[in-house]
Amino acid sequence: MRSRTIWAIGAVLALGSTTANAGIIFVDNFDTTGGTRLNWDGGANWSVQNGTVDLVASGDYGIDCLGGRGHCVDLDGSNGQAGEIMSIDLGPLDPGKYNFSYWLSGNQRAGDQTDFAFAVSLSNGSLLSMAAHVLTGSDGWQRYWQTFVLNEVADSVYLNFSHLGGDKVGIVLDNVQLRVAEPAVLALLGLGLLVAGRVSRRA
């Protein structure tokens, strides 16, 4: 009886540990070798859908990236046409609750200028979540969160950022992350412990 209970609890904890370790699905802080790249092509994790964006090394053009180091993305590129970037396909994703987070800063160069950007998550072409952001040039780095729930397996999932305007001075993006929401992991553990308890009572 005792061995079966211990086995059940161990299996649940092992499953929970695996899920927790696999919680981060995608992360990109845009750090790479080399310096600033105007009219950036998106690199390995992103594609530029419309307009242009700039990959900026911290300190260049008066822009300090998150933490004052590495690289970040100016969403209004250097040809005067604001850009849109989309992540690589992050699917398939299992049903569950997910957190989509990212850091934004004002353009840091025109303190009274107001800029507009949108952050969107898409599943198989359908909208999962969307947030509109309005920042002035003097607004500092701030982390933003969106949460979405998948009720069934999503074969394809994309993260998208787009900017309005076209004056080569835009909202700055850094440290994008998609992860399984922690409460889902805790709920899984709770369910497993309940099953383990039933195994114990039946033995």
Provide tags for this entry.
203 residues, alpha+beta, Jelly Rolls, 2 helices, 20% helix, 39% strand
Quick structural summary:
This protein has two helices and eleven strands. It has helices spanning 2-21, 182-202, and strands at residues 24-28, 46-50, 54-57, 71-74, 84-87, 96-105, 114-123, 126-136, 142-150, 157-164, 172-180. The strands form two sheets. Strands 1, 3, 4, 6, 9 and 11 form a six-stranded antiparallel β-sheet that branches. Strands 2-5-10-7-8 form a five-stranded antiparallel β-sheet, with no helix packed on it.
Characterize the biggest β-sheet: 6 strands, antiparallel
CATH topology descriptor: Jelly Rolls
Question: Quick one: overall form?
Answer: globular
How many helix segments? Answer: 2
Top CATH class: Mainly Beta
SSE run: HEEEEEEEEEEEH
- Strand proportion, as a percent range, falls in 35-45%
Structure class = alpha+beta
**Which quaternary structure do these chains form?**
single chain
Helix content: 10-25%
Distance between the termini: 5 Å
Radius of gyration: 21 Å
- The poorly predicted ranges are 4-21
CATH architecture: Sandwich
Total individual domains: 1
Overall pLDDT score: 86
Number of DSSP E strands = 11
